[in-house]
Write a structure and sequence with these properties.
Length: 429
């Protein structure tokens, strides 16, 4: 099915052609007609299958058909009231959606504002007060600005909840409920996610009216084009194993996941020490630092991007060769999201997981979740004994075979006496 057959506005179709796309992905082909028909929709598909365009393209088409900015009269001359609101869990995902909107709406007179934390709220407040057609926001910052009466959603027609499961995981549900309560009840609501828990499904009854459901592939199944391997390795050897694996030149664009921000910083320091270019992406970094890190990774200036789950949620980078779970995720859904960063749009990719003794439980849970086993193996050519002798960072436990043996208990020295037979005489005991 070519994009032309979807009946999109000519200006949008022209932008799609200029972006180099000729045929929609399965999620796009299934979702776009339902959205254009005016239905509420639940869209479920693996990461990297084109979900963002699946709601962006029909949303823009409906805005264009209604004449972008048609509600100008209520907010002042030449001024638009917001007709579309997109909620996403992270600033990176907000930026990614904005990039998609900018590309597909390049021939439309569309006013767009992005709203997220980590930057000054003054320009965001000004944009909302001036009037925009479309707002893309994280729930937390939007709640702050709505509390200051900056946003006018009285003319809202479309609400999109992107990565709904992650927003629930991050504790945004109370904010989302408050935001939705402030919106017109008569609207079209779209909910998209790579995975959709039963808890999220039950909440769709609050936000949607008789939604259609579009599901591409099994809910819990990662992309079939991704090869999945689990390397068994003691925790203290993870840094050395990562460096060893990165000797492979085919690992040319690698996304490494750390469980903590501190851990991500330690990984990048280790890679820098051995001359492997890397950048870090986590919530302690400023917005400009995060954008620079992501741009450097996209442009090939750095070979490795080390990220935490929350910060990496909005990473939309083509060509990632490998995803490395340096710290294995506790939740199976996070694993699916992580490895979906490679093997995007039917491209092939590799997902590597480091498995230590404490990870076998979560690994078994994951295999049950995705309905398949993951091959365990030892790293070929990796000298576990040699790696064990490398200098350790402060606080890192010493390998068991290198730990100093406890001193043999000895009798206390005599004080004013001599040891005789089985006891002490002539002094204090």
């Amino acid at each position: 099915m070519p994009f032309l057959s979807l009946g999109l506005d000519d200006r949008i179709f022209k932008a799609v052609q200029e972006a180099g796309y000729t045929e929609p992905t399965p999620i796009q082909a299934a979702a776009i007609p339902e959205i254009l028909a005016g239905h509420d929709l639940i869209g479920i598909a693996q990461t990297g299958t084109g979900k963002t365009a699946a709601f962006t393209l029909p949303m823009l088409d409906l805005l264009a058909r209604g004449a972008v900015g048609r509600a100008a009269g209520g907010a002042g001359a030449g001024q638009a009231r917001t007709r579309t609101l997109v909620l996403a869990p992270t600033r990176e995902l907000v930026a990614q959606i904005h990039e998609n909107v900018a590309a597909y709406a390049r021939h439309l007179p569309l006013r767009v504002a992005t709203v997220f934390g980590g930057v000054s709220e003054r320009p965001q407040m000004q944009a909302l007060r001036t009037g925009v057609d479309l707002v893309i926001a994280t729930p937390g910052r939007l709640m702050d600005l709505m509390g200051q009466r900056c946003a006018d959603f009285s003319a809202l027609e479309f609400l999109v909840l992107d990565e709904a499961d992650r927003m629930l995981d991050m504790g945004f549900l109370p904010s989302i409920r408050k935001i939705v309560k402030a919106l017109p009840q008569k609207r079209q609501t779209l909910l998209f996610s790579a995975t959709l828990s039963k808890e999220i499904e039950s909440l769709t009854h609050e936000f949607q009216r008789h939604p259609k459901t579009v599901q591409i592939g099994r809910r819990s199944n990662p992309a079939e084009t991704v090869t999945q391997i689990a390397y068994e390795v003691p925790k203290h050897l993870k840094p050395a194993l990562l460096v060893h694996l990165l000797q492979d030149p085919q690992m040319n664009m690698v996304l490494v996941f750390s469980r903590t921000k501190h851990g991500a910083d330690k990984i990048t320091r280790k890679l820098d020490q051995v001359g492997i270019t890397s950048a870090t992406l986590h919530s302690n970094r400023s917005q400009n630092q995060r954008l620079r890190a992501l741009k450097a990774f996209k442009d090939g200036e750095v070979r490795v991007l080390v990220a935490t789950d929350i910060a990496a949620r909005g990473i939309d980078v083509d060509g990632i060769s490998h995803v490395v779970n340096y710290d294995f995720p506790m939740h199976s859904e996070d694993y699916v999201h992580r490895i979906g960063r490679t093997g995007r749009a039917q491209a092939i990719g590799d997902a590597i997981s480091f498995i230590s003794s404490e990870d076998y439980g979560p690994l078994k849970s994951l295999e049950k979740f995705i309905g398949r086993g993951i091959t365990r193996k030892k790293a070929e050519g990796f000298d576990y004994n040699a790696a064990s002798t490398e200098p350790r960072e402060h606080g890192q436990p010493r390998p068991s075979h290198q730990r100093a043996k406890p001193p043999v208990p000895r009798d206390p020295p005599a004080r004013g006496g001599q040891r005789r037979g089985g006891g002490w005489r002539g002094g204090r005991r």
